[in-house]
Specification:
alpha/beta, seven-stranded mixed sheet, 2 helices, globular
Length: 191
């Protein structure tokens, strides 16, 4: 079966978001343009890495290509709306690609479906017929900055960290490894 590549050259919207309660959230990336909507799932850690690498790429683009990159997202590009519905998974992300298209002055993000075998790096950002399905999005530097800032907010909107071990606190309780299930007795007999 031929590979399906969903290309969004000027998306109306490209955002990250979640479905579910903190501690049991499913992370999505969603691209839309006119009547097309594509949602893919990924792990929180993948979103974090994408956000980190995207921020680094924007810094490099500003210095190497003399391209104007805003330090923060312009207010009009800040998107706090929920994901568009219906949220239907097209595929689960396995491999991600990130690049700069100097011709169109755009950041290119490619998300490839998870596969059983290893993905040959040569198919990332390529239109070959063989390989996993993909979503390819082109973003201006300002839109890329807005995407990264929203992704940070989505990542940090989860469970609060334990003040002792920094692990996420669950609503139903937390077994803290720093306390090791042991409470020292006060030698003065006080609680």
């Amino acid at each position: 079966m031929a590979r399906v590549i969903h290309v969004f050259r000027h998306p109306d919207r490209f955002v990250s978001g979640t479905v579910g309660e903190p501690g049991d959230r499913t992370f999505y990336l969603q691209a839309s343009s006119e009547s097309r909507l594509v949602s893919v799932t990924l792990e929180k850690q993948q979103l974090s890495v994408l956000c980190e690498r995207l921020t680094s790429l924007l810094e490099e683009v500003a210095s190497r290509f003399d391209t104007e990159v805003p330090a923060t997202a312009p207010e009009e590009l800040t998107d706090t709306d929920p994901l568009d519905v219906p949220v239907e998974e097209e595929f689960r992300v396995g491999t991600m690609g990130l690049g700069w298209d100097a011709e169109s002055n755009a950041v290119v993000i490619e998300l490839l479906a998870i596969t059983d075998g290893e993905v040959d790096e040569s198919i990332v950002l390529d239109d070959t017929e063989e390989g996993p399905d993909a979503v390819r999005v082109f973003l201006s530097p300002a839109h890329a900055r807005a995407f990264a800032e929203r992704a940070e907010r989505v990542i940090n909107a989860g469970r609060k960290p334990c003040p002792l071990c920094n692990e996420p606190l669950d609503p139903e309780g937390h077994i803290c490894p720093r306390q090791n299930g042991y409470r020292r007795e006060n030698p003065f007999g006080e609680g």
